[in-house]
Amino acid sequence: MYPSVWNTLSRLRQAREPLAWWKHYLGPGFDALRSFLVPCEGLAGKSYPCPDSGVRLTVRETGGRYVAFPTGDAAEDAEDRELTWNDVQAWQLNHEAWRMGVASALGLAPAPADGRPGEMELAGFCGQGRERKRVYLCHAVGGDASARVAADGTLTPDAGCVLFAERQAGAEKVLMARGIALVALAECLTLEGGGLTGGCGELCRTIRPDITNVELKNHLDRRLDTVGTRVSELELENTKLKQDLSQVLANLARQVEPEFFQWIFVILAAGSVNAAAQILGVPGSTFAGKLKEYMGRGGLYATLYSLVGIRNKGAGRKRIVRFNELFAEHQGKQGVAEPDVLRELLDGLEELNGANWKAMRKELIGIVKSEFPED
What we know:
Blueprint: H1 3-11, H2 19-26, H3 30-33, E1 37-44, E2 47-49, E3 56-62, E4 65-70, E5 81-83, H4 85-88, E6 89-93, H5 95-105, E7 120-126, E8 133-138, H6 143-151, E9 159-164, H7 169-177, E10 181-184, H8 185-188, E11 189-192, E12 195-198, H9 213-254, H10 258-270, H11 273-280, H12 284-295, H13 300-305, E13 310-313, E14 316-319, H14 325-334, H15 341-351, H16 357-371
Parallel strand pairs: 8-9, 9-10
Antiparallel strand pairs: 1-6, 2-3, 3-4, 4-5, 7-8, 11-12, 13-14
Helix pairs in contact: 6-7, 9-16, 10-11, 15-16
């Protein structure tokens, strides 16, 4: 196995130089790769390696004769050499033969040439996986170029794997994210005699694609749609709860004088009878006298009055046991100072939160309906 020769072929695949030049650069792999080189008819190469020192000599034609001589810093390192046409005739890599040779060594079904002279071409079709996949041969040289080509999905549609001269970490990460395997020719092919042997190792079976940006967006859209639906449902439920509670209060209000019903809630909000009288703009003695008259009716009037036994203060509740001398005696006689059904209703409303409101709603409606059925 000659790891360096694969990268050399990628770098020199457009070269047109004498066979001696190719042998110098391909090294021990030259004999196996000789069959993939073809002569360039009527074209002479421009470089020739010195057989003794390996110094690069420049080829020039003079009067039908070919001379190779050193230049630049190597001008004194080698002698001029006279060469024949056979020595200087240019050879180049037969791209089609090379592509088909790689495909054959890896057991790929043949594919017609796609006519693309760029850095990526279709090598063949692989049937190793669960479905027939395309295998591409990449000629990019260097990490940056390899990663750039690997990221361009238009160059490798329906790919199962991409063949690179050598393993490129950046390109491999890009391809793996797309569910495509990277196969390094330096690791899976061997040069023997006049050809290639090897196998891909079926790496495509172990590759699973990462979720793409589009798939991630679609997933989030679906989840957000679900959240949006649930929020809409909660809003509808909340609206229904408010409507039901409004109906309950309306039913209660119809069974007592509207004025008294209003006063009870003003007292709850203000915290005392005196404060409520000031808010309502009613003289304190007048307000107290009318309340006493209403309380004398008993029944629901007395029950509603018991609501003033609780008021909100910050996040908690504070009981008003004897907040007004006017009602102290009445509370004791009527026995309504302890929580009753409407106090339970108010307690329940204060306890409502995002976690329990659905269950609490049913309980509150049930309490009120059982005690105050509609006529």
